[in-house]
Write a structure and sequence with these properties.
With about 450 residues, the chain is α+β, with helices and mostly antiparallel strands. It has a 7-stranded mixed beta sheet with strand order 8-7-15-16-17-14-18. Strands 2-1-13-19 form a 4-stranded parallel beta sheet, covered by helices on one side. A 3-stranded antiparallel beta sheet has the order 5-9-6.
């Protein structure tokens, strides 16, 4: 008796995999989602501890146009929860002080994060000749266009919070694609913005930062309930092999090993896991995927009495530049951003440690981590008491680090994949690390011709 056949198989039940599966299902196909975890959502995990709502993975996201359109089609837009207006206040810890991040041209000219010379250099940006950002690092691109102070005082700290990365190693084309396009099309970032050259795609998303009313974990679970066939959890796609016009797929799960046939396979798993699956298909694909680096992250959730913090707890939170010598990458004030994230009279801090500047963080015991964390928080905010530790979450491979060759690498990956009809990739390493970008990568994978 032959192997059962299914219309499409999706490896990974994170946001990219769920989006791909729901899109394939919408197109009229039978879809099986396979995931090694015990729940859908991938890194989107929410827990309730002592009256706190804790995100063990991502805490906020933007809602770009493709995500908004998808959620409306799934009738899930109502689950979104906008961050409070206080989220517009964001801070860097610089020179021993929490300094508000500029959010307008006027505040940019007034910020103490740049010297007078650095501000003058910013104003000179329209006079700078067009360069070639291909294969440039963020430091090279931003330094060339806006000056070195903009790199160290503004962009570097920002990338600490978003990528847990290093502006000297991250690629400009991958991290700031719109800015790179502005230079190419208008010679100047400022001139391009003034002319309204920024590409907005087929529509507009929502402004600001968002979560989900019950957290991203329940949000992912609700999306998975839209699948006709529930995800096969605690199961792993271990390999695939070309089989005539389609694919022979090997799955390992609680019931043992099984084989399936399908004309469509979407690998919505981290790059290294995708490499293992593809090793028997193409060593070229496997090697390219293995070369994609990830930064480790440890996320520590703390319950805090605001009366025991000497500095005000306000706004989105703060980021700590590399040069400040702290172990802490940043801290989000989650109970300031969204309602009902902490019991009355308490605050929920989401603290992030590690990144490329402290890779060994994931191997340290809790007591060492907490000692370093409390010391940094005391220096930055001032503590009169000890916060309550609610959760410590380790992600050894948390955030992809797109290097200067990343865009070319992904283009080459897709070119090679074109030789294997019915095979697609999706995920945070493909076109952006946010929930919204990962979701869009899943939609794109599902829409590729088989």
């Amino acid at each position: 008796m032959g192997e059962p056949e299914v219309g499409a198989v999706v490896a990974g039940a994170g946001i990219a995999g769920l989006a791909a599966a729901l899109e394939l299902q919408r197109a009229g196909g039978e879809v099986l989602v396979v995931d090694a975890s015990d729940r859908p959502g991938g890194v989107m995990r929410t827990e309730h501890v002592s009256g706190y709502v804790i995100e063990r993975g991502p805490n906020t996201t933007q809602i770009k146009a493709p995500m908004l359109e998808f959620l409306r089609a799934q009738r899930a837009e109502g689950q979104l929860l906008a961050a409070s207006p206080a989220s517009r206040q964001r801070f860097f810890y610089a020179g021993g002080e929490l300094v508000r991040v500029p959010s307008s041209p006027l505040s940019l000219l007034q910020t103490p994060l740049l010297t007078g010379r650095g501000k003058l250099r910013l104003l000179c940006e329209p006079l700078i000749r067009r360069g070639d950002a291909t294969a440039e690092s963020v430091e090279e691109f931003i330094g060339r266009r806006l000056g070195p102070e903009a790199v160290s005082g503004l962009i570097g700290p920002f990338l600490t919070g978003v990528y847990a990365g290093d502006e000297r190693e991250l690629g400009a084309e991958a991290v700031f694609p719109a800015w790179v396009e502005l230079e190419r099309s208008s010679r100047s970032l400022a001139l391009g913005l003034a002319r309204g050259v920024v590409r907005r795609g087929s529509g507009r998303g929502l402004r600001g930062s968002y979560s989900a009313a019950e957290g991203f974990g329940p949000f992912a679970r609700a999306l998975s309930e839209g699948l006709v066939e529930p995800p096969a959890l605690e199961s792993r796609l271990t390999g695939i092999r070309r089989d005539g016009p389609g694919w022979l797929i090997f799955v390992s799960g609680p019931g043992g090993e099984r084989r399936l046939r399908s004309p469509r396979v979407v690998l919505a798993v981290p790059a290294r896991e995708a490499a293992e699956i593809l090793r028997g298909v193409s060593s070229e694909l496997a090697e390219a995927l293995e070369a994609i680096d990830y930064a480790p992250i440890v996320s520590v959730s703390l319950g805090v009495d605001p009366q025991e913090v000497r500095r005000p707890v306000e706004g989105f939170g703060f980021l700590v530049p590399r040069d400040e010598g702290a172990s802490l990458l940043g801290c989000l004030f989650m109970s300031q951003l969204f309602p009902n994230r902490a019991p009355a009279g308490r605050e929920l801090f989401q603290c992030l440690l590690g990144g490329v500047r402290w890779r060994e963080v994931v191997d340290l015991p809790d007591d060492v981590l907490l000692e370093r964390l409390h010391s940094d928080l005391d220096r930055i905010l001032g503590l009169n008491g000890e916060p309550k530790t609610l959760a410590v979450t380790r992600w050894p491979r948390a955030i992809p680090q797109p290097r200067p060759d990343h865009v070319a690498r992904i283009q080459q990956l897709r070119s090679t994949l074109a030789r294997f009809p019915g095979l697609s990739i999706a995920g945070s390493y493909c076109g952006g690390i946010s929930i919204s970008d990962s979701l869009e990568s899943g939609l794109c994978a599902a829409r590729e011709p088989s």
